[in-house]
Design goal:
Blueprint lengths: L9 H14 L20 E18 L5 E13 L5 E6 L3 E4 L4 E10 L9 E10 L9 E9 L16 E14 L1
Antiparallel strand pairs: 1-2, 1-8, 2-3, 3-4, 4-5, 5-6, 6-7, 7-8
């Protein structure tokens, strides 16, 4: 072995490759988008990222006085195809890119994830912009390929737990479109 050369056992290499793929951002238009979540005609993909973080839920009373977990906010890092952090996803729902541009959206369609433990796939229309940069022309966002992030079981939310938060780990692919 040469000086300064590092050799890892095969299981370690396999684990590193697995993790590298897990944070890699999607590199092309997704082929498995349900019809209800398709980007509008004429929209062009401007950014595809992979997010990892948590969906934050709060236990609170619903309109029928039953308690349920309600989404408070996401908290996730956005990573590019090389795994570098390029932005943040947070309450709004909002996304802020590394150049300071920011968008806030409103979900207009959802489809249940194929995985029942995962948050729904979404189509989001942008309702406000801030700053100038990559996001200043973005009009539509897709959230696809979610893993984790679904609300905790309802049985874990009752009057004694009102106000408590639950942070559920999740990952997803986000696609940002502009005309």
């Amino acid at each position: 072995m040469k000086r300064n050369e590092l050799r890892l056992p095969l299981p370690c290499v396999a684990a590193l490759l697995c993790c590298a793929r897990a944070v890699a951002a999607p590199s092309a238009l997704p082929a498995d988008v349900p019809e209800a979540l398709r980007a509008p005609a004429g929209a062009n993909l401007v950014l595809a990222v992979h997010a990892s973080g948590t969906q934050i839920y709060v236990c609170k009373a619903a309109d029928d006085d039953k308690f349920q977990w309600t989404l408070k906010a996401p908290d996730a890092q956005l990573r590019d195809a090389h795994g570098a952090v390029v932005g943040h996803h947070f309450a709004g729902p909002s996304w802020k890119y590394k150049d300071g541009s920011e968008i806030t959206g409103k979900a207009v369609a959802h489809v249940d994830s194929p995985d029942p433990t995962a948050a729904a796939w979404l189509l989001v229309n942008v309702v406000s912009h801030a700053g100038s940069g990559l996001f200043e022309r973005v009009t539509t966002v897709q959230r696809l390929h979610t893993h984790g992030g679904a609300a905790p079981p309802a049985a874990g939310c009752d009057a004694a737990k009102a106000g408590r938060e639950a942070r559920i780990p999740y990952t997803a692919d986000y696609y940002f479109y502009a005309p």
